[in-house]
Amino acid sequence: MTIRFDGQVAIVTGAGNGLGRCHALALAARGAKVVINDLGGARDGSGASSDAALAVVAEIEAAGGEAMANGANVAKFDEVQAMVEQVMAKWGRIDILVNNAGILRDKSFGKMPIEDFDLVVDVHLMGAANCTKAVWDIMKAQNYGRIVMTSSSSGIYGNFGQTNYGAAKMAVVGFMNTLCIEGEKYGIKTNCLAPTAATRMTEDIIPDQRVLDLMTPESVTAGLVALVAEDGPNRSILCAGAGGYARTVVYETDGIYLTPEEQTPENVLANWDKIDDATNQQELKAGWMQTNKFVAKAAKSLGIE
Ligand code: NAD
């Protein structure tokens, strides 16, 4: 089975460089009309230029594909809405949204100006929210949509100097979780990609060129294309890098039940090993399932099944 996107329209944010560029080239090569959104700034988000986006459009057109450039700043809802209106006027539908645009402002938390926290959250979280909001009703009306949030191991697990980035990257996981619940009946699937690749974002973290050579954007893009395929998964965090593919899952331990008399902080600490015990842990698919689990344990203690 070959994955194709003929007749589909995709928006890839931050598609002028790195992973976004590679995603856009792959989607276009498989038949999608692609919007190459890019503000064209530096790695820290300063500046702007249309050069990178125009170069990717030229590359796609030279290969026989269709693309348009757009310079909207994803952190600005009015610019994003104007982009979506432009796409609808030209191509009449939007099937795929890849929220990929991103910047870095790394510093240990104590040294980080709060403005750097704000800006990173604005681009990664609000950028994804703005773009998703702008296409959501269109996808609902079409009864079809595929959305990807770009998360990161820095958000899922933490990385020194990246409180701002990590917070925003985990926030998009929470965003995805509810979008999946709300989008299911409209044929909209949402997933997260947690990539690791050699791009200008990572060039100074991994100095060994031989290792960088293994971390191709193409290896990540294979995962992205799978996520936005018609038969792709829903509500998954796909981690991809250097040819490795894995799924991050949040499990909740079965936990314990304490009677009202036992509900003291001392008892919570004394039972930590049981609270932490992974036996019978579960992947919960909605917040209410946790409430149900706890209420069922409490009810059982009263003899209510
Ligand atoms: P990159 O810097 O090469 O590309 C990011 C692109 O986003 C740039 O072209 C930039 O101009 C664009 N951009 C930045 N702010 C924008 C804005 N406000 N509006 C529109 N465009 C904007 O970086 P990359 O490594 O290709 O990263 C792509 C995504 O993957 C990012 O979300 C990043 O956080 C994430 N990521 C990358 C890695 C990695 O190993 N490279 C790891 C984890 C997550």
TrEMBL record:
The Ketoreductase domain, residue ranges: 8-204
Cross-referenced PROSITE patterns: ADH_SHORT
Keywords: Oxidoreductase
SUPFAM superfamilies: NAD(P)-binding Rossmann-fold domains
Domain of life assignment: Bacteria
Gene3D superfamilies: NAD(P)-binding Rossmann-like Domain (3.40.50.720)
One term of GO molecular function: oxidoreductase activity
Record-linked PANTHER family: DEHYDROGENASES, SHORT CHAIN (PTHR45024), SCP2 DOMAIN-CONTAINING PROTEIN (PTHR45024:SF2)
Family: Belongs to the short-chain dehydrogenases/reductases (SDR) family.
Name the record gives this protein: NAD(P)-dependent dehydrogenase (Short-subunit alcohol dehydrogenase family)
